[in-house]
């Protein structure tokens, strides 16, 4: 009796703990129908609790003998096996918790009423052992458990992998436990003892599945989300410092040049100075545009969608007079998953080719290779020296010696491509010039 009571109390506590966890964490769990298992095990635990009190020798229900405990056992196992069998079907149905709770209340009340009114079939006869009803019921329960195991394995895509794995183990141990419970003649027999040991293992795995699915994994997800948010905040602060330094230094210089040029024009009527003012103004406008592009990087991420790069380039060329006198050929097309920041990537590379290479021709080749999109943008200017190829994608890098002053333009290109999971690199165009190669996922 001590062993049996200990085993059953353990299983009852586990069942009720499953209910408490599943009921209170359902709205935080990715596995939204976990409450169904919780409600089921609340009532299964209730039947097991009454079964424990009714066990032979406990003296709680005098006059009933071992038959009452066996009947309650059959009821609890039928409820458990059918609940696990139906569980995968609940994944795609909307059934309020109150309604599920009501169903189990009605079924439990009717079942206990049948026993109280002596309308439930006899399951155990003292001196003879298990009745045919009990043995057949156990095999039916085993069949339900096997069907539940197959059903859960087939529906694994809809069930959290950790939960599916632990439920499978629990079902296997329960099947063997029920086989053991078809063999005993005495409620104190060895097969009864083995069956209860297997029951402990079964409830352990069910408990483990619920705990990991609803408590441990959400906690790990929360920690991962917090770490990701902290990294994003650090990256954002880094970008903001870059913006601040460029606005303070580069834009201030441009505005100073503009003011100085205006003063010269006013004082000496030097028309050539208008070119200096115009270039400084263009550079300031371009810088502010890049600031807007950078905001896309540090703002809220948007869903990436397939987009035609050929259409993007055509739109860029149409809307900017910078490209009016440049011959630009576009070959092919591909549609990688991008957002509006891709406009900045293409515009930056095309703009740098026009402004810094001295080219009068640009070839753009767009190719799709399996799941990747390759973009080659070739200019035929003076090229980029090997000494600075590895540096041009660094934020704010400039080299006046080679007349390369890219600000944060190519840094934006690099950061956007990394956000897409792609890459960017530059190689020489023979006999002269540079080729930027982009690779993205379609």
Polypeptide structure, described:
This protein has helices at residues 2-25, 34-54, 66-90, 97-116, 132-154, 161-180, 190-268, 273-298, 309-318, 341-357, 386-389, 409-419; strands at residues 124-125, 129-130, 305-306, 327-332, 337-338, 361-369, 372-379, 398-399, 404-405, 423-428, 434-441. It has 442 residues and is of the alpha+beta class. It has 2 domains: 2-226, Rhodopsin 7-helix transmembrane proteins (Rhopdopsin 7-helix transmembrane proteins, Up-down Bundle), CATH 1.20.1070; 304-442, 2-Layer Sandwich (Heat Shock Protein 90), CATH 3.30.565.10. The protein has a 5-stranded mixed beta sheet, with helices on one face. Strands 1-2 form a two-stranded antiparallel ribbon. Strand 8 and strand 9 form a beta hairpin. Helix 6 packs antiparallel against helix 7 (190-268), helix 7 packs antiparallel against helix 8 and helix 8 packs parallel to helix 12. The longest helix is centred in the middle third of the chain and has 79 residues, at 190-268. The protein starts with a helix and ends with a strand.
Give a quick precis of the structure.
This protein is an alpha+beta fold and 442 residues long.
